Amino acid sequence: MSRFVVVHTSWYQEYINDMKEIISEELSGLEVNFYEVPGSLELAAMGKKVIELILKKESKGGIAGVIFCGAVVRGETTHYELVTKETFREIGNLALDYPDIAIINNVICVENEEQLKIRNKKNTLNNVKALKTLAKSKEEL
Description:
CATH architecture: 3-Layer(aba) Sandwich
Shape: globular
Mean pLDDT: 95
Distance between the termini: 13 Å
CATH superfamily: Lumazine/riboflavin synthase
Radius of gyration: 15 Å
Enzyme class: transferase
GO biological process, one term: riboflavin biosynthetic process
Structural class: alpha/beta
GO cellular component, one term: riboflavin synthase complex
CATH class: Alpha Beta
CATH topology: Rossmann fold
Family: Belongs to the DMRL synthase family.
Number of domains: 1
Strand order of the largest sheet: 2-1-3-4
Helix content: 40-55%
């Protein structure tokens, strides 16, 4: 497998650090590059930029997978709905635009920080395992 890319937000840094640690452990021995963006709405654009740069440098096999990491906690306004819908739509579009690359969305959307505490590590572990499985399946095609 080639390199993996992690694009993560800067919000909820404690939880993002846990995500990065889990991903680093699960992808130990593989090349992993981390990129930070301000918030969830910026994830897909950075992911696309990184994918395009890597593919330009290495025409084939340069990137096995991308995992997007972030946390969106519902507030008192409709901002939550906008952020979650647009983030998921844009990450999904990337998966369609780059079908040879494993793309996993690990943006955890919750009602409150207590739910984030409960779901963060388990979801991230499951998603990074899914990333490895999907990358291997795509590599074998």
